[in-house]
Structures are given as structure tokens and as C-alpha cells.
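Incident log, structure service

09:12 report received: a user says their structure output differs between two submissions of the same chain.
09:20 pulled the input from the user's history:
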Amino acid sequence: MNIQLAEFTGSFTSVKTCPDDSRAEFAFIGRSNVGKSSLINMLTNKKSLAKVSGTPGKTQMLNYFLIDSQWYLVDLPGYGYARTSKSVKDKFGSMITGYLKNRETLVCTFILIDIRHELQKIDKEFINWCGEHNVPFCLVFTKSDKLGPSQISSNVSAIRKALLKEWESLPPHFVTSAVTRAGRDEITEFINVTLKETKQS
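09:34 re-ran on a clean worker, output below:
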């Protein structure tokens, strides 16, 4: 898939206010400062589609982007930013869980994990929560340009091993870099194939 057109549709505060049509949705989420905006911009070939900030926690609503007039890319608020007040965290929590549990047009959620670090507790908890609530997801390892090939392989294996202590099997994963554009073709092709399967079902 070669994305030609990516348009910002709007920002929404709850699943009830999101676009009311039948287009498939692919959501992106991860800990704050995991490189989500940079990844979205890389995937869509738009340098400033999603706002990149040095300050974590800037995404505070459900941000919708219409891709090639066919499907929505949904930028979800990050989780786990320590400086965010409890009331804001609670709002993010209800916004995110409400969307993930109730959005019927959600096809897959890409959970972003910084490949440079071992599996964080909050990532594990979120992944397990998705499993418990039957939220379809894939894992996306970001910032692979910061490591060499052997370290990338080692870190991915370690994270998968940690998850497999509680999972019988894991969904697909992608190793990406917004700098080198690694993983772009794999993710867009996965979306393309998934869209075709969705239309056939």
C-alpha cells in the first residue's frame, strides 16, 4: 500500500462523538514519548500530519486522520505520563478504554513499544488488558535506528519472552524507525491485507 492522501478529520473526546460512518479504523497507542507521532508521519509520508512534541502527553483526544478516503488512522492519547494529573489520567483512561471496548469499526490497535528498553510494567498491563477485552492488536517496536541488528533481535526476543509467560501466542509484530523508515512497508501491507479481509467477511 502506498498512501496517497492523509487528511486530519477532527479530534473527539469520546467514542460517542467519533465519525459516524462504516470506514475501518486502525488505532495507534503507546506510552508517552514512544515516538507515536513520528511513526504516524512516516507511515503517511506527511512530515507534520501528527504533531511531534518534545513534551510527553500532548495528545489528549482521539485524533482522526482519513487515509485515501478509505480508512481512518486514529491517534490515541499516550498512557503512563507521570506528570499528568490524576484527573486527566482518569479522563484518558475512560476515553481510551471506552474507544477500544466499544468502537465497532476498530479493526486493529497498534501498540507501540520503545525497542531500547525492557518490557515496562505499564506496557505489559495494557497489552494484557487488550487481551482480556478481546481488543485486536499488533506490537510495533519503535526507534530501532538507535540499536544495532543483534541488539534489536535480542530486545525483541526478550520482550516477547516476557509476554509469553502469560500468553499462549502473540499477534504479529513490526520493528520500525521513523528515521530509517524501517517497517513502513510491512505495516502498510498488513493494513492493506486486513482491509481486504474485512471487506470479504
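09:41 both user submissions now match this output. Likely a transient worker issue. Closing.
09:42 reviewer note: The first helix runs from residue 36 to 44. The beta strands are 6-12, 24-30, 62-67, 71-75, 106-114, 137-142, 173-175.
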